[in-house]
Amino acid sequence: MTRPIKAFHKSLSLLKEDKVILLLSFIPVLIGIIAYYYIGNLFYVDLLDWGKNIVAEKVGNSEWLSYIAWIFTAVLTVILYFLVSWTFVLFVSIISSPFNDIISGRVEKRLLGEVSPDFNSEKFFKRILTVLINESKKISFIIILSILSFILGLFFPPIAFCVSAILLAISFLDYSWSRKDLSFGECVASLRKSFLTYLITGCVFMGLISMPILNLFILPFAVIYYSVLFYSKENGLTI
Hints:
Blueprint: H1 2-17, H2 19-59, H3 63-111, H4 121-153, H5 157-179, H6 184-193, H7 195-209, H8 214-234
Helix pairs in contact: 1-8, 2-3, 2-8, 3-4, 3-8, 4-5, 5-7, 5-8
């Protein structure tokens, strides 16, 4: 289990050494911050005022108004938390997928000691459609498995938790798999060879991504981390 720990340190080093990786990593962070701002503004300004006005009309300016308004605000806070936690990863994954694809490729070049190519806008826009289609298929597959995992969790919670952790790891590993154009069988073989590593690290990242604000920075880092794990293992590199 020393490789996952070394991969963490190597991922941090790549962030410091490669300015392009650092820049591309901050794009989904910026998107996430903007999304948080507008969703929060919608819930805590528009809907909160709307709810308070309805309560005021029904209750009037009585002592109960402050208590009901407090309960409404608390419920709204809980809804916002789960809404953001459930949809955020999927939303940012689609938006940031073209950039994550570039990050994964640059990680491979750095690990192999090759010169990372300069950003090529023409190649980027040619590949962007392919990446977005692949990401949409992947997310659809993950949503279906997540629903099955939820149902399974009603009867066997530990198994459902493990399935969710593996799914999370796969969502980041897929950038490396797609760049290598691995078949479904090869992806399964790759997962099987490092199943325990991906399971444990998936559990760790699942916990980190469940934390609002922090997950803004964890998502792009996870792309780098799993790229380091995959490419270093595939090429037999010491990290």
